[in-house]
Amino acid sequence: MKKLIGLMILIGLLTMLATACSGGPAGGPGASATDAPAAEIGSGEVQLAPQLSVYNWADYIDEQVLADYTERYGVEIIYDTYASNEDLLTKLQAGASGYDVIFPSDYMVVQMIELGLLAEIDAESLPNFANINEAFKNPPYDPGNAHCVPYQWGMTGIAYRDGNPAFEAGPPNSWAYIFDKEVMAQYADEGINVLNDQRELMAAALFYLGHSPNSTDRADLEAARDLILQAKPMWKTFNSEDYYSTLMESDEIVLSHAWSGDAAQAYWNTFDEETGTGNWLFTVPTEGAVRFADNVCIPANSQRIETALHFMNYLMEAQVAAAITNFTYYPSANEAAKEFIDPEILNNPGIYPPPEVAAKLEWLTDVGDAIFIYDEMWTAIKGQ
Ligand code: SPD
C-alpha cells in the first residue's frame, strides 16, 4: 500500500511538472511536436508524444517502471488492463483507437497479423533487442520479429491451497482436479476457479481427453465442451484477471486453474516469515499443459508509433525487464536481465520449469478457421 501511495504521489508530481512545462494539460496524438520531449533510440533522435496509451494483462508490470519512464522522458502513460487475448482482440476489432502498446500472446499475434491489426516494426533497429534471449527471437508466430518483441513467458497449471486435506496425498497434478466430479467432490464446496479464457480452458480439457490443445477437429472440440459443461456446476468462478488476489490470497477458493506467475504472486503475498512458506503452491498436470510467450506490439492504428517503439526499447533494458520479473514472477525473455533477477525467482521450478516439466509443455498455435468452432463452444460454455 505504501508503495502504491508513493507511486500515486510521484505520478501526481510528475503530471504537475509535465503540465507546468508544457503550459497546459498533456496533449493527445494531435498535440504539437513542440510540446513533446525529444529522445534517442540508438543513434536516431525521436520526438516523443506527450502521452502513450499502454494496454496490458492485469498485474503484468511493475507500475514503478511506468512511473520511471514518465520521470525520465516526460511521457505520461495512460495504463489499462485486460483479462484475456480474446478481450484484447474484441477491443481492437471494435475499432478501439488510442492504444499504442499491447501485449498479445503467441497464437494471438498470428491472428492479429492476419487481421492487419499490428504495425510492422524493425526490431533489430531497437538497440535493446540485443538483450533478448536468442531462443525467443524470430518466433514462428512472428517471423523476423516483424511486429513484436518478446516480453515474458510462463506456463498454465493448477494452483492449490497448501495444507488442504484433499491435497495431502500429493499435489493435484492432473486436469482431473478441475474436470472429474468425483475428484472435485473432496473440495468443491471450498471453491474452485477456472481461467476465464477460451483457448486456455479448452486446452486444459483437450489435454485431459488426450487430444492436442490445438485440435481443429469438431468432434474433439465438442468433447472438450461437454467435459467443461459437466464440470461447470462444481466451479465457483471463471476469473483470469484478479483471481490470485481476490480468490486465492483471501481463501475464497482452494484450487484454481492458474498461470504460473499469478500462482507465485499468491505464494509470496501469503508468505509467512515464521513458517517460511506461502499458502499457495503450483503444479503442472501430467497430461500436459500450455507454455506461452507474451509480446510487446503496436496496434496498426496507433498515432504514436515512434514513442511506442521508444517505450518498447525501454522495456527491453536489462534492469527494467528484471524489475518487471521481480514484480510479476513471470520469466523474462530478456537474457541480459538475468543478472538483476532475484535468484529465488531464477531458481524456482514453479517459475522457471526444470527440463522434465518443460518437456510436458505445449504452445497454443493459431487454429485458423477452427477458431469459429472454438467461439461456438465458448458461447455454449458461458451461456449455460
Ligand atoms: N496476470 C497476468 C497473466 C498474463 C499471462 N499471459 C497469459 C497467456 C495466455 N495464453
Explained architecture:
The protein is an alpha/beta fold and 384 residues long. Helix content is 37%, strand content 17%. The chain is built from 15 helices and 12 strands. It has helices at 2-22, 63-73, 85-93, 106-114, 176-179, 181-184, 198-208, 218-231, 243-248, 260-269, 305-315, 318-328, 343-346, 355-358, 371-383, and strands at residues 38-41, 44-47, 51-57, 76-82, 101-102, 148-161, 192-194, 237-238, 255-259, 280-283, 289-297, 361-363. Helix 1 (2-22) runs parallel beside helix 2 (63-73), helix 7 packs across helix 8 and helix 8 (218-231) runs parallel beside helix 15 (371-383). Mean pLDDT is 90; it is low at 1-34. It binds spermidine (SPD). Residues 57-60, 105, 154, 200, 259, 262, 292, 294 line the site of spermidine (SPD). Spermidine binds next to strand 11.
